[in-house]
Structure prediction request, 243 residues.
Amino acid sequence: MQSLPADESYEDGILETMRCHNGRLPLWPLHRERLARNAGLDEMLLKEIDQCIPRLVEQLNQKMAIARLRLGSVGGEWCWDLSLLPLKLTAETELGVRLYPCKTYLSLSKSRNLGSKLLCRNRYNKAKSELPEGERIDGLMLDSEGRVIESLRCNLLARFGNTWITPDLHRCGVRGVMRDWLSSEIQWQERDLEIWDLSGADEVALCNSVRGVLPVVEIIGHQRWSIGAGVRGLQHLIMETLW
Prediction:
């Protein structure tokens, strides 16, 4: 296994951040699917990763950790590495997250958006620099035409009645693994949303493969919510089924 240089030092870099739990990667099949969607990924390299990753995680002594898989082109050759970081539980799970609408927007893809998480995070880093001081704040990312897409680190879910709605990501944004898993577990739809749509939801939540589901308690300057039974139900589903 060859080490990769710093994130910004190579071309076509892809990042998978995965939750390790009791020596397992519960969502590895979906992470693997997302890797396979990338047209530049060699099948032999994908098989190598597929064989090595579970064995490496199985040897981990910690109950919970974050596996950070980096894959990219170095000197014209694809290679990968894996780092394991401690996973610290935060108050966001219980107390919720406040979303700050960022002025930095996501550019629309000129071709079909594969939904991969890229190592080049310049636009996200620029948006992060806009965030005000305060606790439990994440940035809300829109596209260049004003549609709500995601937060700086999670996908969005909004409950309207009995249905969960998630933004359409075929133009831009990261198609998260937890989002894909939830799509087969709950009644949901994918469609375009603007901030005023999101503000009219009964409940709003964030999701990603490391933290699971986080309640949203406020879109700063627009709307506030109490944490409802729908979000708590999603959290319970994940705890019972995945970890």
Notes: The first strand starts at residue 11 and ends at 21.
